[in-house]
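From: lab user (bench 3)
To: helpdesk
Subject: output format question, protein + magnesium ion

Hello, I'm new to running complex predictions and I'm not sure whether the block I got back is the full result or only part of it. Here's what I submitted:
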Amino acid sequence: MAKPAPQFTCTACGAVHKKWAGRCDACGAWNSIVEEAPLSAGPAARSLGASRGRAIPLGTLATEEPPPPRTLSGMDEFDRVLGGGLVPASAILVGGDPGIGKSTLLLQATAAFARAGLPCLYISGEEAAAQVRMRAQRLGLADAPVQLGAETNLRDILTTLDTERPALAVIDSIQTMWADNVESAPGSVAQVRAACHELVTFAKRRGTSVILVGHVTKDGQIAGPRVVEHMVDTVLYFEGERGHQFRILRAVKNRFGAADEIGVFEMTGSGLAQVTNPSALFLSERGQSTPGSVVFAGIEGTRPVLTEIQALVAPSTLGTPRRTVVGLDGGRLSTILAVLEARCAIPFAGLDVFLNVAGGMKVSEPAADLAVAAALLSAREDVALPPECVVFGEISLSGALRPVGQTENRLKEARKLGFSTAIAPSRSKIGGGEGMRLREMPDLTAFVGDMFGAG
Ligand code: TYD
Ligand code: MG
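Helpdesk reply: Thanks, we reran it on our side. This is the complete output you should expect:
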């Protein structure tokens, strides 16, 4: 029988290739293709069930043990994103662009955990110990009982962790780690994967929580294989727009809490300051109500956050008009423009459209649809919405408006910030809106008629 051909698999996206290549055609990752033993016919590939293995011990779903206590750092914005404090033996990945403030955030968080009584170890693979100490000094953290090391050799780090047995170990960053049993350069997919695997295994075996810092590539993914995100319990992204002081720590995956939970920080001269009332911050630059500006009452994780959605619509000089979006999904904008044209007969052909979430915030909820439509219409018609008004609701392709979750929280937050009216889909009313006037709209046409006099 012919020997089966070898098979090559991309460790980043899982695509299968006939031969090895330096770059995966499917996902564009470099140096991610590895050879895998093919499933051959023959004795080795006989079904596993054919020979007996060991029976594994089974149990019920009921647990006698109470859930492990979580440790709070006292940095509320950080604790919330973790799902209410640090879970013992958990593995957390914090991703973000270079220079966004990951090292600053984690040094502050580590110091906070250490001050709360947790034995903490901080390993920097990127900066010398003296540099980290200087930063700690500047941030007023020099007295926190954190053990600091500067090292990239994973074997030495694991030995140190095994001796010291800290409750929390921070590794800054996973791309600088080097496992001497893997034959490729630090930062390569194989190295990142091996380092992550070793550290996560260590965390589970020894009960140490590990926080891994990971750099993000231009297209917004943690540099290295996607599998790293699967290996850890929690994936947090630290994001922010250049030129803005706000930084948002967002849980994109969390086995111990809500995904999409956010913590908001502001980068100051003395480190990251917590922002306890993000809505006030995101709306702070908003002056008089202007055409094209709409306040969206959104939900991020478990927390309501108000943001300003801004649109600008101008005659285009281009054959294909511009559609420029910052902080929202471009595809969603196209859909909303198409619905406005098809269901309300309001065309945007020949018009450039610029859409933006103020303050560098990113909004991904479908509930923002109606606010986006309102901003587009307001800009196009040059009519401002009443300043005391917030908007939320999902638009379906038929032009109908769908109620969205957590109406009560949205209304409460709006009221807290001095708004008195909410424009929302019909059937939204579920109480909680004391002091808020709810203007319910069945569909987009009704909304257009109401706000802009029949469009
Ligand atoms: P850093 O934490 O080194 O980023 P990362 O680890 O994500 O690469 O942060 C670097 C930036 O933060 C740097 O441009 C300076 C700025 N910064 C402040 O504005 N204030 C501060 O107190 C600190 C420590 C940094
Ligand atoms: Mg750093």
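A quick orientation on your result: Residues 96, 98-104, 135, 139, 267, 269-271 surround thymidine-5'-diphosphate (ligand 1) (CB under 6 Å). Let us know if anything else is unclear.
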